[in-house]
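TA notes, week 10

Several of you asked for a full example with nothing omitted. So below is the full record: structure tokens for the whole chain, then the designed sequence directly under it. When grading your own attempts, check the secondary structure regions first.
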């Protein structure tokens, strides 16, 4: 018996305390590197983009890999690579946690367009506005305050999971 799985995820993760450390020069090298990590772990990247303080990735995750493990691989390996490749960025860290939203096949084109337009998007919309819109669009079932705490720049640890707390 073969398994056929379509697990398209729009993942968002930020730098620790939302520090603006992902410069355009780093973006040019980081996004392909993240794609390589994904390929090495049997994920397929449909799009990667972002701005100086966070990354968006639309990825297809295989049935053998949990979302949490996929994010651990992407964030952990890229952080190690940044430290080794860019000694001046030794303070670089990803913020604990991430956002992950399932995307239907019919939503791929719109999501890719959205990821590609991050620079323009954030020129007009705050990260909080973005979270509220994503939360409404995906019928995200959690307390919005908890979601905002997840992306809070102050480094506080209230609710770092997209899964409702028990």
């Amino acid at each position: 018996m073969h398994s056929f799985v379509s697990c398209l995820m729009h993942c968002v993760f930020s730098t620790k305390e939302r520090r603006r450390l992902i410069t355009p020069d780093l973006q040019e090298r980081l996004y392909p590197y993240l794609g390589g990590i994904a390929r090495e772990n049997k994920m397929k990247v449909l799009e990667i983009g972002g701005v100086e303080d966070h990354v968006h990735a639309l990825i297809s995750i295989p049935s053998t890999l949990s979302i949490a493990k996929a994010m651990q691989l992407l964030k952990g390996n890229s952080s190690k690579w940044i430290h080794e490749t860019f000694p001046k960025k030794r303070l670089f860290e990803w913020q604990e946690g991430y956002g992950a939203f399932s995307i239907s096949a019919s939503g791929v084109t719109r999501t890719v367009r959205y990821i590609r337009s991050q620079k323009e998007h954030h020129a007009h919309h705050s990260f909080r506005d973005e979270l509220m819109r994503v939360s409404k669009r995906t019928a995200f079932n959690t307390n919005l305050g908890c979601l905002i705490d997840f992306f809070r720049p102050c480094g506080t640890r209230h609710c770092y999971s997209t899964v409702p707390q028990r």
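The chain has six helices and four strands. Use that as a sanity check on your answer.
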